[in-house]
Amino acid sequence: MGKGGEQGGDSGEPAAQIRFYTWEEIQKHNLRTDKWLVIERKVYNVTKWANRHPGGQRVISHCAGEDATDAFQAFHINPTLVQKFLKPLLIGELAPGEPSQDRDKNSQLVEDFRTLRKTAEDMNLFRASPLFFSLYLGHIIAMEVLAWLMVSYFGTGWITTLILACILTTSQAQAGWLQHDFGHLSVFKKSSWNHIVHKFVIGHLKGASANWWNHRHFQHHAKPNIFKKDPDVNMLHIFVLGDTQPVEYGKKKLKYLPYNHQHEYFFLTRIPLPFLMPCSHTLLIPLWSWLDPPRVPHPTLFPADCEGNSMQAPSLKIKLENFSQSAHYSQKFLMKLEVQGKKSKIAKSEHLLLFLESHWFVWVTQMNHIPMEIDSEKHRDWLSSQMAATCNIEQSFFNDWFTGHLNFQIEHHLFPTMPRHNFWKVKPLVKSLCAKYGVQYEEKPLGKAFVDIVGSLKKSGDLWLDAYLHK
User: Fold this and answer.
1) Domain spanning 20-104, CATH class
2) CB burial class (10 A; 0-12, 13-18, 19+) of residue 96?
3) What is the pLDDT of residues 148-183, one digit of tens each?
4) Are 39 and 21 in contact (CB under 8 A)?
5) Which residue ranges of the chain lie beneath pLDDT 70?
6) What is the DSSP letter of 421?
7) What is the reported pTM?
8) 3-class state of residue 20 by DSSP
9) Which stretches make up the Cytochrome b5 heme-binding domain (predicted)?
10) How far apart are the C-alpha atoms of 130 and 132, rounded to whole Å?
11) What was the pLDDT predicted at 321?
């Protein structure tokens, strides 16, 4: 029960006394219209602020009624600056007798993880190398230029077509990993610079939406592999995942597709729909699609999002994003004109490029998550929740480059704003902490990771079939 005088709230007018709250009371405020969260024992009412949250209202809502200290530190590169937005929302503190962690979480594990993060900060592991990212962007641009030169000076024969497709596939895949770095604010010290370059890379080089990527991807990081919170495990009835969802579908006799064959039709998928339309998730469209629509439609064409919430009129930020995407597709159109002018077969390479790139993207992004635990919310601490949902792939120069360092998925999920070239440095510290508390740290070869995707889909499909037939 709260005690003392009111402080702060949405009005921003502090009172003389501090009000204290118990976890029992705080956990009641986890509704769509009533959201409280705790950061470093301070209680904030974020109900009205959620709709203005730069990372989207859903990601902050997913932490409502909980201790959000570690999530707050994970996503913000300048927590001190963000405090000025939190100050007017402050309504009190945890009562002196209340533990810092909710729901009987292991307080010592939580404290040790925060000590580990402080150690990583002292080691300057959150400081990016300008040379690394300059060279990385340079090798992407070099491949794009090389593709243009090939179109200009060659253009006949299937050998040229295949080479061009491979070059552009590699360029696009690596641009996808690079936009991921800027999206996580892991390159520049200032968020604004990260946002600007992110829009260029994902918009101009990829033709996708930075705002929509942020909206989805931060939810995934906040609650990985949690149904109704992680959009990446909402498969829109195309797949059933984990151990509980297949049984639930089977008991309800839901059969949108023959899920016992999902490990087979997984191979007949190609393009992740987050690049196509805003109401899609990690759904995949069929291999036989010959269409190449814009990866994200113009925002003004969609008056509401998937849940019926009104979308704002296009701001300057949206207009700049549209301009960048338009530049991307104008470049593709000009290349097509150049190709057609030489009566080349290279135009066919675009379909091969989409096929190769989308498979590259899907296999790499799913290898760390689909074989792991996928379930409903269990309110674990930050370390335990991330470890249950992620695994690593063995390190090598090729694996680092091929996966955009997503082979260090564990370290990336624990420290989303850490520059990827420092993951290998913090890895021993993470493994040591996991060993201390008996938390599983899973690492496997790249090939086995790919095989495990198929095996996991088959296991879930078999669970569905058994429940469908016998329960």
Assistant:
1) alpha beta
2) exposed
3) 888 778 766 678 778 888 898 999 999 999 999 999
4) no
5) 1-16, 155-157, 269-351
6) G
7) 0.83
8) strand
9) 18-95
10) 6
11) 53
Cα distances from 298 to residues 7, 277, 310, 330, in angstroms, run 43, 9, 15, 15
The encoded tokens of residue 446 equal 């790249």
Angle of helix 191-199 relative to helix 210-222, nearest 10 degrees, comes to 120
- Asked if residues 78 and 191 have their Cβ atoms less than 8 Å apart, the reply is yes
Cα(272)–Cα(51) distance, integer angstroms:
27
Note the pLDDT of residue 356.
85
CA–CA gap between residue 306 and residue 269 (Å, rounded): 23
Phi, psi of 310 (to 5 degrees): -65, 140
The pLDDT assigned to 190 comes to 92
The partner residues of 35 in beta bridges, in order of sequence, read 30
- Strand bridging mode 392-393 / 443-444: parallel
Tokens found for residue 2: 């709260």
Please state, in angstroms and rounded to a whole number, the distance separating the CA atoms of residues 74 and 60: 13
What Cα–Cα distance (Å) separates residue 226 from each residue in 51, 239, 393? Answer: 22, 15, 22
3-state secondary structure of 5: coil
Extract the runs of DSSP E, i.e. beta strands, from 19-85. 20-21, 30-31, 34-39, 42-45
Domain borders along the chain are 20-104, 130-231+262-287+314-367
Check if the beta carbon of residue 460 is closer than 8 Å to that of residue 241.
yes
Class of residue 428 by CB neighbours under 10 A (exposed 0-12, middle 13-18, buried 19+): exposed
Q: Which token pair is 65?
A: 């009624």
**Dihedral of CA 390/396/400/403: which sign?**
negative
Question: Per the structure block, which two tokens stand in for 257?
Answer: 């597709």
Q: Which two tokens stand for residue 229?
A: 């919170």
Q: Are 196 and 37 in contact (CB under 8 A)?
A: no
Rounded to an integer, what distance in angstroms lies between the CA atom of residue 282 and that of residue 267?
Answer: 15
One-character DSSP codes across 272-331: EGGGT-TT--S-EEETT------SS--GGG-SB-TTSPBPPPP-HHHHHHHHHHHHHHHH
3-state secondary structure of 186: coil
The phi-psi region of residue 154 (left if phi > 0; otherwise alpha if psi is between -120 and 50; otherwise beta) is: beta
Rounded Cα distance between 200 and 321, Å, is 8
Tally the residues of the chain. 471
Range list of β-strands (E), 156-294: 269-272, 284-286
User: DSSP letters along 130-185, please?
Assistant: HHHHHHHHHHHHHHHHHHHHHHHH---SHHHHHHHHHHHHHHHHHHHHHHHHHHTT
- Parallel, antiparallel, or unpaired for β 42-45 and 34-39? antiparallel
Q: Where are the alpha helices (DSSP H) in 372-445?
A: 382-389, 397-403, 409-414, 423-437
Cβ burial, residue 185 (10 Å; 0-12/13-18/19+): buried
